[in-house]
Amino acid sequence: MTHRPLSSRLRDALGSLSARLLVAFLLPTLLFLALAGASVYALARASLEDELGSSLSALAAATASQVSGERMLTIEPGDDVSGTRTWRNLVRLLDGVRTASGVRRVYAVDAQGRVRTDVGGNLPVGTEVPELARDRLELTRVLAGKRAASQVLFTGSDGLLYKTGYAPVVQDGQVVGAIGVEGSAAFFGPLRRLWRTFAMASVVALVALAFIALLTARGLARPLRRLMDSALRIGRGDLTTPVPPEPTREIGVLARELEVMRGALESRDRQLKLMLAGVAHEVRNPLGGIALFSGLLQEDLRAGAHADAGSHVDRIQREVTYLQRIVEDFLAFAREQPLARAPMEAPDLVSSACELLSMEASGKGVTLDVDAAPAHLEADGSLLTAALVNLVKNAVQAAPGGSRVKIRGQRRDGGYAIDVQDSGPGVPEAERERIFEPFFTTREQGTGLGLPLARKIVRAHGGELALRSTPGNTVFTLTLPCTPDSQEARALP
């Protein structure tokens, strides 16, 4: 199976993002416009149809009120040919209504649906009106004495849409016929034009939205592509090129976080290279000593000079012990150890560290002067003890014989500060900035990892390790956060 490069997959993802944004912009808008347009068109058409039907049935009712049912029923087939007076009077009435209202057709029928007079349709008297078969339900309502309008529009011979309104012709309380008025649904022309205008406006809006979507997609894709390029550079091992900032808030947060990650990786890479160089340098010297004294030991054993063999073995063992200490310090500094926090008292931390160095201090004639105020800490006791032991050990080694190393613990600035003070020669100003760098040491047998490891442990606890030094007065200050109980205790009298 062939795996595509990561850069190709990321570019495809950005292309897919643009497509999804385009769809996300256009699809909801298209659905909304279609549904809204269709709904508005249907509502407008239904409303206009109802209004037209109501107007036509009202006109039919007004006309029916002027028609005498008795005289209308006297019109017989052939009267339209001979032109009887009753037929002419009814034609004159219906034609006046037709002319005044502008409708297409006005006709009068009896209860059986046969034409008595048809103005505009020109059906002969006695002929059944075909449209009444379509409007059978409406005609039933009319014969029951109610007005009605056809439920459907129909197309006339001129290709236009029409609707019919009906009203009963009443004689002596009985429905004897009906008046039908056909009117043109001319409003559908403007309505259709309005619909076409709406459709064109929708198309224009969709094109504008598509343009905006493309601009938005490009506006998102460009900074994302820059972030992608930065991520790929970091993945290829380029940790020196900074990640450019981005103006967009969300993508800007990603860029800043990626820059923080790059800086951390660069720092870790630089530290790792420094550590490897330091290990190589530190290991080379004892290895050279081991090779030298093992060669001398071999020569002495061949020559039978066993008296010097013991001293050579002692030197080899010392070099091996030093190598072992280098490896242990390196591993302690390099690995990330999870903190096993537990409640502990600050005086116990200080006293346990000083007890471990009491023999070494006595051997050099140095007195450990300890004074630690009570405070509650939440810390990894073994790791903090190792860090404090390193500080006290350095102070003992730097202090002149017969002097004092003062270890003071006190609450300070919301935390707990432990000062380790000696009266040695101090740290030269040129070395103060480098004293916490891994493998930097001024001692012949020093690994240069003690102080960096101590600072690493303290910072893992949320504290800090700092140095103040002048000739005759060097102070390392280890500051740790206090637990809430400690803060409350400090506020008590």
TrEMBL record:
Cofactors named for this entry: Mg(2+); Mn(2+)
TM ranges: 21-44, 198-217
Domain Histidine kinase: 278-484
Enzyme Commission number, as recorded: 2.7.13.3
An example Gene Ontology CC term for this record: plasma membrane
Compartment list: Cell membrane
Gene3D superfamilies with a match to the protein in the record: 1.10.287.130, 6.10.340.10, Histidine kinase-like ATPase, C-terminal domain
GO molecular-function terms, A-Z: ATP binding; phosphoprotein phosphatase activity; phosphorelay sensor kinase activity
Residue ranges of every copy of the HAMP domain listed in the record: 218-270
This protein's name: Signal transduction histidine-protein kinase/phosphatase MprB
Organism: Corallococcus terminator
